[in-house]
Amino acid sequence: MKKKYCYLIVLLILNLSNAQIAFPVPDFEVCDDLSNDGVETFDLSIFDTTVLGNQNPNNFTVSYHLSQAGAISNTDVITNPNSFVNSTNPQTIYTRVTSSTGGWDQHLFDLIISYAPVGVSLTPFEVCDSNLDGFEVFDLSTKDVEIVNGQTTGVQNISISYHSNLTDASNNTNALTQLYSNITPNNQTIFVRVENSSSPVCFDVSSLELVALDCTDSDNDGVIDIREDVNSNGLLTDDDTDMDSIPNYLDTDDDGDGVLTIDEDYNNNGDPTDDDTDNSGIADYLEINVFLSLESQESTVFKMYPNPSKGLVYIESIIPVLKVSIYDVKGKKLNIKALQNSSTLVMFNTEKIKKGIYFVIIVGENGSTAKKLVVRN
């Protein structure tokens, strides 16, 4: 009886030594590409070593399956494990280890594709230097909207941080405070890290230029002096767009079209420098030939006043006025009727027109002209 008992123990040990085990694989997470479509290509064979553990690869075969039933029955096999494209996100992969003697074991893990934020190419962050010492306080959070809007797809739980150097941004260390004072006078480049809050390994870094700006506006035309340096040579005295001997930084009508520079702010954002109605690449306040504003030789025949206007506008002419039409900056004709007191005096009311720039087309016997009209209601 004692001898039989020892024999059973030996058999049990031999059986365990021949057992096969599918060792667990940790869930495998990758960051999506720029498409952020949740689809990627995987090389599943990189998990073979993990699945086998310390087992001899010469005695065991590793296979990957799309279902647990497939892993059990050795069907539903992934035939292209070196270039497997997921069909769901996450997607569960079932591993199977089969021994040379026919025994098997199975396990599972998930492929996870996480949203990859995009480092946006940011516009310079400019603030007016209040005491002209080259240093100012920047509220960095005001750039968050630009970063969020620059993402390629729907934003999913991203976090944004600002750093003084690329290393800190890459390692997510030493984040700057929301209210930050530049340490390099006038211009300083900092770095922005945007990461997936749920998966911080998915991140991108971009740069942001901080500019402490001299916002002196000598002529109060809405364009600061340094923006009046049209030829970018560092001098303000040799920029005179309309050649009236008044440099732009002292000229309230830079292009000499009869409309004050400050009134050529078509989009009403307080900055005439970003208005380019005819898409010519030249700001409207520097270009007399804007949209319908190109005036013919008839221009001197007609006189329109007051301009800017808040009510009645009069057009006087030395020749009969045949027709008057009013358009907005997008070319849409306004439904405004001009009243004719005589053949050479016409008037119309701007009280119901929104504040902005308009173009008045005046047709006379010998031709037509277009005049800009500023409405300040």
From TrEMBL:
Domain Secretion system C-terminal sorting: 304-375
UniProt keyword terms in alphabetical order: Signal
Record's signal peptide: 1-22
InterPro entries: Secre_tail (IPR026444), TSP_type-3_rpt (IPR028974)
UniProt xrefs under NCBIfam families: Por_Secre_tail (TIGR04183)
Protein's UniProt name: Secretion system C-terminal sorting domain-containing protein
Region (Disordered): 253-278
GO terms of molecular function: calcium ion binding
